[in-house]
Amino acid sequence: RATMKSLRFISAEAFVSNAEFARKSLGSVAHNLFPLLFKASYLLEKGEVIHDLVENWPFADFNVGKLLGTTVDYEEDLSHRTCSVCLESCLKGLRDYVLNYSSPYVKRLKVVDLTGLKDVEVQFCECKKTMGRWARTQLLSKLCLELLVYLQQRQCNPGTFDISIDVLIDLFVTERNYELVVHALLKKCYCPLKICCVAFRSDNLALQKFFYVIKLTDPSLLRKLEVVHNVRLEMEHLEMLFNSIHFPLLMSLTLPPRTFNVRRFTATDERMLANIGEKMGEMTQLTELSVSFSILTGRIQKLLSPLKTPLKMLDVSNCSLNRADMAFLANSFHANHLEALDLSGHNIPDLYPSTFFKLLSHSSSVLRILTLEDCNIQDTHVNMLILGLSPCQKLQEFRFLGNPLSSQALKHLFTFLCELPMLKNVEFPVPRDCYPIGITYPIDDASLCRFDHQKYESVAEELNLILLQANREDVKASTPLFGSYDAAVQETNNELGAYLIKSFKETLEKFTASLNKMS
């Protein structure tokens, strides 16, 4: 469906479509038209016009998310278009805003907010080249350093050094851009463009480097911290981090796999876990927690009970939770506030069906996202699952990949899912009857793609027909075999792959050395 444009927006498009004319005429354009022209230029990918608009920005703030979001003149939200042409022009325009010779008293810009950009799988911009979070981190750091060199090398208007603009950004640091980001953060106090890190993600980074860069970001401003792949942050390091750095505004925390492992717990580890729980309790803004692929059997209460603010998002996938853990979650004050819950990798029907449904019942009035992948949900459990999901009228996303369900059970479930009014996205498993007889669950990666693709396509067509007949074309149903799309992993997958190969090689070398010693 084409989004309606106001006459003002159509006029703005016409104005910016001739880039040369638009750039020459900007000086006579009323300031209140700049936001309109910015969105029109972004839609048409007019990089040169975007650059000049930002270079001459007349307001005190420049919020990309708001400028590209739903507006009266054009309702379509463009904040998910992380177009490389547009964003590069935007950031270079910001650098040139500082260098522009116009007298400094005209310069009002104080805050630039880049945090509203959303990285998505499908890009609609014509250039089809995206500038993800990692690349935005890289470019901003580079431009800040270039700006400093430029200011040192040429005679600038003395007022240029009085310019101070906070640039709010979600930083993404890996081994490959670490040196550049650190250099930019160290020089922050001298640069007119001040990098202000609101959210921080780290992948493929040595622990020592992670500790160093996180201290440079000014953790007192941090709202989101994600330590995800190949950062060897274990429990003792996490305790060290929380003891040495305060995160007063932290709302969201994601920890890497194997941060906790209770199977080898000592009395010291128990004390350490209790201390981490207490430190998290001091983070009064914390409402989102992800501790997937840690072993937390019987320790969820110790970790979560000190929290004073109820969690809205909890990811405890593949954490080997037992009955006591599930009972704590179902009865805790978090249950009534959970908007997103991931319990993947737990044998729910066999281990704790009643406590799980109690938890679901408590969170049903607010639950928006539910993930139950590899939970051994079989055909015999579908009716019970439907009963549990029925009150979840606000559910928008339901992911249940990797469960041994037949085509028939999936059709039954889809007929019910049509009744959930807010549902937008469903990720369903390849039906069990599409795999060879005797397949065991959870299915290993080698066997994951060995199914009857023709039969699967036929079933998928039938499931989409169920949605269509119920007038639910708004629901997207898919089977992403290797998990949901992760923009950050997609952007840095070459580096991630190289890191994994290097780790594998090191492990093999250690193993070979051990064998040689033995022989």
From TrEMBL:
Keywords: Leucine-rich repeat, Repeat
Coiled coil residues, start to end: none
Family statement: Belongs to the PRAME family. LRRC14 subfamily.
Cited PANTHER family: LEUCINE-RICH REPEAT-CONTAINING PROTEIN 14B, SIMILAR TO PREFERENTIALLY EXPRESSED ANTIGEN IN MELANOMA-LIKE 3
GO cellular component terms attached to this protein's record: cytoplasm
SUPFAM superfamilies: RNI-like
Protein name, entry field: Leucine-rich repeat-containing protein 14B
InterPro entries (UniProt xref): LRR_dom_sf (IPR032675), LRRC14/PRAME (IPR050694)
